[in-house]
Model the fold of this input.
Amino acid sequence: MLAWFSNYPVGELYTEAIRNSIDYVLDGGRTGRFNLMSPDVHPGERASVGAKLEYEVLRVFDLPKSRPLDTLIAGTPVDIKATIGDNWAIPTEAHCHLCICTQIQIKNNRHRSWLVRTHRSWLYRGKGNKDGKRGLAVDARNNWSVPLYDWEPLPVNPLRYLTEEQASLVLAKKPGQVKRLLKMFHFLEGHIIPRNVILTVGAGNDDPMRRARQARDEAGKEGLTILCGDWVESREQAAARGITLRSGEWIALQTAPEAAAD
Done:
């Protein structure tokens, strides 16, 4: 089992899977939400990150959905579990089977995962909750599990760096998207901004990506150069400044003096 995982950058792939799961639950493009711990996110929605993560893990590792548990890895049934708290709810069908248990700490922006066989003697809560789910004893996790990777940083949604006042300006209904996106680029100068952030700022409006391109044209008048990883020229300009810009990512930088003169 561990030999199978050795063929992959496990922490990196889990980071992608977790980030996608959180973005899916927040649904920023429709709701304008960007912080999973915000009061306007229901606890049940936070708990659903784990359910979405199961499918994201299958996708990034190209694993099949397979009974009796979540998947098969090297021919062995494995259950995939995650928590944004301190423990996991292990269902009866996964008792005594191999489980991947992932802990996501939103406040600390990090995550880690273990591979553990969930023997019934290592589970607590007696007969469990009404569904028979039981938690994993801390001693069992610490002494009898195998870390798949140590703490891995979880990328922060750049909108979380805004002050309350800045966020209210960027996410307001008025003025239009172009002006609000320009404010965002100014406030978040130097931060990599994923596509999902653009969609969140333009939540409920038409074609936010087009508005971002329009903001790019306006930015030069305000001393900003906005680069987008979808364009070769932008990637080259970013690389010249030591920045790796991937497809779908944006960044605002102070316009170089010689470019301003031109």
